[in-house]
């Protein structure tokens, strides 16, 4: 695992994730705004790099980790992964949920939340992105910061607002119940209104929610989501995976599996008992 030294802002390699570190959750800026692994590993970090908006994220994450939490290490997805290596990228994506889960604290930087956080919170782009779903669920401690890096709440203090906005049960947000206590269809519904830049990432960003590991095959398009469902079926007998609806009513036929998380949009309230009843009704000999 590659982490940032919060004092020197340099990268350090560790054989395992068995370290104390802070982690950042954020939405990426436009091309060229974020600091890459290559920027960080240059012989000298250039002035051009330090002028990028992403450099400010690194500085503030490290400052908060060091001064407020006594942490000497931090992880940020933009610069701690060498995305030129397909093997490293695949390992990182498969490990991402665990890395957020094991972090001492998570800083959620909502760059579009300004002077009135609680009123503008629900309009934030952070709630529309696929990757930030696991970044909300996995860590026990999440602190929310606005565009000025002013703390305006935590996952614990904002639980009701977060549950209302995302449809994720309070028990999941507070780690009072496990993900396996929630039917597959309901978990899928949490991602139904989210989007990713790459179509395949709609599947890859959900791996941790289902404790699934699988290789990354960028270029496979929607087949990635089908492959994810196949892996889920190998792991569990939860038949709620078939409780989806196709919003395209013009199609006469569809396959057994959903094509996107959007097909699970109306399954937020599915419960385990209901899913079992549905299974017995639909699959009666």
UniProtKB/TrEMBL annotation:
<feature type="domain" description="Heterokaryon incompatibility">
    <location>
        <begin position="21"/>
        <end position="112"/>
    </location>
</feature>
<dbReference type="Pfam" id="PF26640">
    <property type="entry name" value="DUF8212"/>
</dbReference>
<dbReference type="InterPro" id="IPR058525">
    <property type="entry name" value="DUF8212"/>
</dbReference>
<dbReference type="Pfam" id="PF06985">
    <property type="entry name" value="HET"/>
</dbReference>
<dbReference type="InterPro" id="IPR010730">
    <property type="entry name" value="HET"/>
</dbReference>
<protein>
    <submittedName>
        <fullName>HET-domain-containing protein</fullName>
    </submittedName>
</protein>
<feature type="domain" description="DUF8212">
    <location>
        <begin position="223"/>
        <end position="251"/>
    </location>
</feature>
């Amino acid at each position: 695992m590659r982490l940032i030294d919060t004092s020197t802002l340099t990268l350090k390699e560790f054989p395992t994730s068995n370290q104390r570190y802070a982690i950042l959750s954020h939405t990426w800026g436009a091309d060229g705004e974020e600091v890459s692994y290559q920027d960080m590993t240059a012989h000298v970090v250039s002035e051009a790099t330090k002028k990028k908006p992403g450099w400010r994220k690194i500085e503030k994450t490290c400052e908060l980790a060091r001064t407020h939490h006594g942490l000497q290490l931090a992880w940020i997805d933009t610069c701690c992964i060498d995305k030129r290596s397909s093997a490293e990228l695949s390992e990182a994506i498969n490990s991402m949920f665990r890395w957020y889960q094991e972090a001492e604290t998570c800083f959620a930087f909502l760059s579009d939340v300004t002077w009135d956080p609680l009123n503008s919170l629900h309009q934030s782009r952070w709630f529309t992105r696929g990757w930030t779903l696991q970044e909300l669920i996995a860590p026990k401690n999440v602190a929310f910061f606005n565009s000025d890096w002013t703390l305006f709440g935590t996952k614990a203090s904002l639980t009701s607002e977060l549950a209302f906005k995302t449809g994720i049960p309070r028990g999941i947000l507070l780690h009072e119940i496990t993900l396996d206590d929630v039917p597959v269809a309901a978990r899928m519904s949490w991602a139904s209104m989210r989007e990713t830049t790459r179509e395949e990432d709609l599947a890859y960003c959900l791996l941790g929610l289902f404790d699934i590991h699988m290789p990354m095959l960028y270029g496979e398009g929607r087949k990635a989501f089908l492959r994810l469902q196949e892996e889920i079926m190998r792991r569990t007998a939860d038949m709620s995976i078939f409780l989806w609806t196709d919003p395209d009513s013009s199609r006469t036929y569809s396959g057994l599996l959903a094509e996107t998380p959007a097909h699970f949009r109306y399954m937020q309230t599915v419960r385990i008992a209901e899913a079992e009843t549905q299974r017995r009704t639909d699959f009666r000999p």
